[in-house]
Design goal:
Layout (H helix, E strand, L loop, with lengths): L2 H4 L4 H11 L6 H13 L5 E3 H18 L10 H10 L5 H12 L3 H4 L2 E2 L2 E2 L5 E4 L6 E4 L1 H8 L6 H18 L8 E4 L4 E5 L5 E6 H6 L24 E4 L4 H5 L12 E4 L1 H7 L3 E2 L2 H15 L3 H10 L3 H19 L2 E2 L10
Parallel strand pairs: 11-12
Antiparallel strand pairs: 1-5, 2-3, 4-5, 6-7, 7-8, 9-10
Length: about 350
């Protein structure tokens, strides 16, 4: 298990470990996760395979329209059926039948496995061999849906899904995959070989799970919902003022330097440098990203170093440069229990 899972485990922590830290050979786990979140608010305990096949196949068909590669294998009868449905060559009923037979072969068994081990709780139990012929949702899933962080979870799955499928679709060697930040659109983007900037996903959704849905500085709850008063702000740990005025350049907009904050902390910090004690927190957060198997891992390694000591040294040297220029530091007021 990763440090992320062991640090203050909660229902949200367990769920995020499934989504963020699982090794993926197909995107089925993301489709199942989004389906479970959909059913969690309907207060129905038993979900038949017929019922589950509808949202599960729908989410996969939607993603296939934007990224045709949804697995690392060379072929898939199930995905081929989804493609035919998108092309109008298969009926909805036929899609459901194929999904029931082929779509759940491995994903139901593997959903709760993280780093080759089952996590400590289950969000559903497998009832396919029983009379129900489906899955049974547990009280842990229903309790998950009652919490504040539930509103963030679909966006976090979607962002993770987009990152993973983008890496597969590009078929690019991992050590050359680099994700960049578009500050104007608040998007993570991939620069193609022709130097075109291709959007991948929103920065908030991509980072929020690694922050456990908390402000990086004060740990108050934040959300990815842009209509909420608690919407996360994308902040530069080393202040943005360093980009133009002090020679740091594009380094400031790199993923390792981006954190999510609440509005009061973002306004209170302004252009000041966070206190050095927060540098360790940034290092911890970046290690969460590196433990995750998607382009963000390779991006952080490219930007900060291949080993933990190298990354620690890089952060310290960057911080020292910033401190010599900005002088003043800022310390947030902790408003909740530390999340990481």
């Amino acid at each position: 298990m990763t440090e992320f899972n062991e640090c203050q485990p909660s229902l949200e922590n367990y769920w995020r470990s499934i989504v963020l830290f699982g090794r993926n050979v197909a995107s089925y786990k993301f489709a199942l996760g989004k389906s479970l979140l959909e059913f969690a608010t309907k207060n129905t305990e038993v979900i038949t395979l017929d019922q589950l096949a509808d949202p599960f196949s729908r989410y996969l068909c939607e993603h296939l329209k934007n990224a045709d590669k949804q697995a690392t294998s060379q072929s898939s009868r199930f995905l081929d059926t989804c493609r035919k449905f998108n092309a109008g060559e298969t009926t909805p009923d036929e899609l459901i039948e194929v999904t029931k037979k082929l779509g759940f072969v491995n994903v139901i068994d593997a959903f709760h496995v993280v780093n080759d081990l089952h996590i400590g709780i289950q969000f559903f139990t497998d009832e396919r061999r029983g009379s129900e012929k489906g899955i049974r949702l547990t009280q842990d899933l229903f309790r998950l849906a009652e919490g504040f962080q539930y509103q963030n979870l679909p966006s976090e799955i979607e962002a993770r899904w987009r990152l993973v499928e983008t890496a597969w679709e590009l078929n690019t060697p991992q050590d050359t995959v680099a994700v960049e930040y578009d500050a104007n659109e608040e998007l993570l983007v991939f620069k193609t070989r022709g130097n075109a900037r291709r959007p991948i996903t929103g920065c908030r959704g991509a980072l929020n799970g690694y922050h456990k849905g908390r402000c990086f500085y004060c740990f108050s709850p934040i959300t990815v919902d842009t209509n909420s008063e608690k919407v996360a702000h994308v902040d530069h740990f080393l202040p943005h003022i360093l980009k133009k005025n002090h020679g740091f350049g594009r380094v400031i907009d790199r993923v390792w330097n981006l954190v999510l904050t609440c509005k009061p902390c973002n306004l209170g910090k302004s252009s000041k440098l966070p206190d050095v004690v927060l540098l360790k927190r940034l290092h911890t957060r970046n290690n969460y990203l590196i433990e995750s198997h998607n382009p963000l891992r390779e991006t952080l390694i490219i930007q900060t170093g291949a080993s933990e000591p190298a990354r620690r040294e890089y952060l310290q040297e960057s911080y020292n440069r910033a401190k010599e220029l900005l002088i003043h530091t800022w310390t947030p007021e902790t408003k909740d229990e530390p999340a990481f």
